[in-house]
Design a protein that fits this description.
The complex is a heterodimer of chains A (327) and B (516). Chain A has 327 residues and is mostly helical. Chain A has a domain of 208 residues. The two termini of chain A are 21 Å apart. The relative contact order of chain A is 0.19. Chain B has 516 residues and is an alpha/beta fold. In chain B, a hairpin with a 2-residue loop joins β1 and β2. The longest helix of chain B is centred in the middle third of the chain and has 16 residues. Chain B starts with a helix and ends in an 8-residue tail after the last helix. The chains are: A mainly alpha (327), B alpha/beta (516).
Chain lengths: 327, 516
């Protein structure tokens, strides 16, 4: 089954939804939701028609979208990664600090790589080798990372110096296009390619479908788990670096808002929470939906509390739409 | 055939279905099926896998809703939105896959959601056990302790618990979907007695089985399904085996007859697999044998004698505790996970194609390609052309019937699913094929197809290890059979000695020294 088919192209060629595979229908639904949400945004505020506003949304969606790559893979193998928030924060604080200390920009990238690898392997170890449920294990790892971050930031004064490359990646604007968005496009292409055309992708779907049958077919479950959790942690760590460039600082708790939105993006994107079905094409729409909803609520003149309540309710409703179909 | 037939026919049917139809997407699963169930009668449904038996059961049990036709209960038209609605209307179903809670007690399972209460809130434990015991005794299963967790029961006992659970709502119709497929001979006897008893109590019973002997014995009426349509039925007293087979299999009847052919002969080539002193605590001990290319070696015996575990161990399912030596293709093998066994040239076709053999949610193509992903790559990317040519070739070679190789495996009939599970190993060209009870729940036509494949593999020089819970299959297929008893080889049979009688003899006899 080809999961990477652009649903828009599909829809024009085959107007009948009945002729699409269930997979394609789910992706189509995600993009229809995206259209509806965007129309809602425009109805609430004409500003959403302007490129300036949309550029901001694309940058925001980049942060959620890149995290959603790893999260999509994790959900596809029937797991979840809840260690994202403090992976982001630790990577941002440690990355900016060490880069400032050594006066070298690449140090920040080395930190991203090291944290991604370490957190991912620890997650895979607990979930696969120790067979702890990923919900528990990755949440515990998140807490652990929070502790480590606090210990570190108590010992070392935080720097206000952010590597210029991080600022360029988050805020740059080559040829009128936001650099962050270009980075996202690149990462998305890699993710879609990996899931649809690499043996890795096939094995991910096999594990999510039937772990026991995958084992008996010679799929390397340990290796796939490790890759998936490392990809997820690397994505989070990289977003940490982007966020430090975006806000020109790294601070405690900066990753806290990035736990639920990427998971919501994955679900709205049509990936089944029990694994084995879905893909990243839908998650892209999901990330945009989540960001547009947040932006739309900001433009409405309501208190922050009310905003959160409305946002939560809409997310629940959208997730319900997909979870109901999955039964 | 049952005696109550004529008397019952005069009665009104408790359930009458007419013109039932069901489509799944573009596939017609059931079309224009009529069915009348009379109280105190056993109505057997016969048909090849994919004939529509399961779909019919699902419609009657409220799991799926019919697209056409209607169901009447005692003359009243009904529609079941949920399985619970069907249960309330008096239709209880015991599915092939049991639906018990392993860690709960027998009584708690039987009366789940209808526990007797004290003061409308608290579960009355004593009344719960009393009612559960009464239901079990009604089935002649008073020996099952209501307090013991279901996980400690044998499969046959669990099934009786499941039937007791179904009877707790005092249904007018009881549907038994392949209740005997996993039972031993003695256990089948007991189940038959239970069915007789329920019949005299006036329950209408739907009985599904692939075993004609059982149907001859217990059924009052028989309906035959093929390709989603009812192609014939038998009134009480006029069942005929030949006509039933002909109706059931249609053109593949020929193929069914071909399965009953002599076993391929052994060859004199050097062994491809040599096992010496293989031991796994609590499962088997001191198992030694040699397997030559072109040979089909059977591992026979009663169930639970350790022979199935030998096959699992060879395939690397047990990580620890395995002693002894395995040589595959001249090299030492110490498989700790299936991947190692696969790389060494082994293939494994398990009994449960739904949870172990295949991925029902993935496409036929993805199912077959999973064992050879690296080989299908060009510049690290999966090549669609290579995959299509590999899969296309295997689909043609095995005669797999599917709308396309892109449809989900789950949409295929059982026999075709089993063929896909075999195809994924043919893609690897393994040296040793392990068939671990591959015909469980497979109909006669599909079984003949599978046997044909096994013979072809052997003729082409592969070595085959074959295990089955159906002893009658060994003489059809195997040139040599090792009979297991209590984890050890109790004897070996070769050539003409391979017969059901000899296998049974060895299964019960003391272990001897003649092991290969």
């Amino acid at each position: 089954m080809s999961r990477a088919i652009d649903p828009a192209v599909r829809a024009t060629r085959m107007p009948l939804a009945a002729r699409l595979s269930p997979d394609q229908r789910r992706v189509l639904l995600s993009y229809l939701i995206l259209l509806a949400v965007y129309a809602g945004c425009v109805a609430v505020n004409r500003e959403f028609l302007s490129w300036g506003t949309m550029r901001l949304q694309l940058v925001q969606a980049t942060f959620i979208g890149i995290i959603a790559i790893g999260q999509t893979c994790a959900v596809l193998i029937g797991q979840i990664d809840l260690s994202v928030p403090w992976t982001i924060t630790l990577s941002a604080i440690l990355g900016t600090n060490l880069a400032a200390l050594y006066g070298q920009q690449w140090v920040a990238f080395a930190v991203v790589g090291a944290i991604g690898l370490a957190v991912g392997l620890v997650n895979a170890f607990g979930v696969f080798a120790l067979r702890v449920h990923s919900l528990i294990w990755t949440l515990a790892v998140n807490l652990l990372l929070q502790g480590i971050t606090l210990l570190y930031s108590n010992a070392a004064a935080p720097t206000t110096h952010v590597p210029p490359i991080a600022r360029f990646l988050a805020l740059g604007n080559p040829a009128g296009l936001p650099m962050a968005f270009l980075v996202w496009v690149f990462c998305s292409a890699l993710a879609i390619l990996a899931l649809s055309l690499l043996p890795f992708g096939r094995q991910v779907y096999a594990i999510g479908n039937r772990p026991a049958a995958a084992l008996l077919s010679g799929v390397r479950l340990g290796r796939i788990h490790a890759i998936v959790f490392v990809v997820s942690a690397l994505g989070a760590a990289f977003v940490g670096l982007l966020l430090s460039g975006y806000s020109s600082q790294a601070y405690l708790g900066m990753g806290n808002e990035y736990l639920l939105p990427p998971i919501a993006a994955v679900v709205i994107g049509g990936t089944r929470l029990s694994g084995g079905e879905g893909g990243y094409v839908g998650s892209i729409a999901g990330a945009l939906v989540v960001v547009l909803l947040q932006a739309m609520l900001v433009t409405l003149a309501v208190s922050e509390g009310a905003r959160e309540v409305i946002f939560g309710t809409i997310l629940l409703a959208l997730c319900f739409l997909f979870l109901r179909r999955a039964r | 055939m049952g005696e109550g037939g004529a008397e019952a026919a005069a009665k009104r049917p408790v359930l009458a279905a007419s013109g039932l139809g069901k489509r799944f997407g573009g596939v017609v699963a059931l079309q224009g099926v009529d069915l009348a169930l009379y109280p105190g009668e056993v109505h057997a449904l016969l048909g090849a896998n994919g004939a529509g038996k399961s779909t019919l059961v699902k419609l009657l049990a409220g799991i799926e809703q019919p697209d056409g036709g209607e169901i009447r209960i005692r003359g009243e038209p009904v529609r079941f939105a949920t399985p619970h609605a069907a249960l309330v209307a008096g239709i209880a179903t015991v599915h092939q896959e049991l639906s018990l809670f392993p860690s709960l007690g027998v009584a708690a399972n039987i009366l789940i959601t209808q526990e007797p209460r004290r003061g409308r809130v608290w579960i009355d434990g004593r009344a719960l056990r009393r009612r559960a015991r009464a239901l079990l005794e009604g089935l002649g299963a008073g020996d099952i302790d209501p307090e013991v967790p279901v996980s400690e029961l044998s499969l046959a006992q669990s099934q009786l618990v499941e039937i007791a659970k179904a009877l707790s709502s005092q249904p007018g119709v009881l549907i038994l979907d392949e209740p005997t497929s996993a039972l031993s001979v003695a256990e089948v006897e007991r189940l038959m007695a239970v069915i007789e008893r329920l019949r005299t109590q006036g329950t209408a019973i739907v009985f599904i089985s692939h075993r004609l002997g059982e149907i001859e014995r217990i059924a009052d009426r028989v309906s035959i399904l093929r390709s989603g349509e009812k192609v014939g039925d038998f009134a009480p007293g006029d069942f005929s085996r030949e006509r039933a087979l002909a109706l059931m299999l249609g053109e593949s009847w020929q193929e069914g007859a071909r399965a009953e052919r002599a076993a391929p002969a052994a060859t004199a080539a050097a062994p491809v697999l040599a096992v010496q002193g293989l031991t796994l605590a609590r499962h088997f001990a001191e198992v030694s044998f040699k397997l030559r290319p072109g040979e089909v070696l059977g591992l026979g015996g009663l169930e639970g004698q350790g022979h199935k575990e030998v096959l699992l161990a060879l395939f690397g399912v047990f990580r620890r505790g395995l002693d002894g030596q395995i040589e595959l293709g001249g090299a030492r093998l110490r498989p700790r996970r299936p991947r190692q066994a696969i790389r060494a040239g082994m293939a494994f076709i398990p009994d449960d194609r739904k949870s172990l053999g295949g991925f029902l949610g993935l496409s036929v193509s993805e199912n077959i390609a999973i064992t050879v992903l690296e080989g299908l790559c060009r510049f690290f990317l999966l090549s669609g052309a290579r995959e299509a040519s590999l899969v296309g070739g295997l689909v043609r070679r095995l005669g797999i019937v599917a709308a396309s190789s892109r449809v989900a495996l789950g949409s295929l009939s059982g026999g075709n699913q089993q063929k896909v599970v075999v195809a994924k190993w043919l893609a690897r060209r393994a040296a040793v094929y392990v068939f671990c009870d591959p015909t469980r729940g497979v109909d006669a036509g599909a079984r003949a197809g599978l046997f044909g494949i096994i013979r072809e593999l052997a003729a082409a020089g592969s070595a085959v290890l074959f295990y089955s819970t159906d002893i009658s299959e060994f003489p059809l297929l195997c040139s040599r059979v090792l009979v297991f008893r209590e984890g050890r080889i109790s004897g070996a049979l070769e050539g003409k000695e391979v017969s059901e009688q000899n296998i049974l003899d060895l299964s019960f006899r003391e272990a001897t020294r003649e092991a290969a």
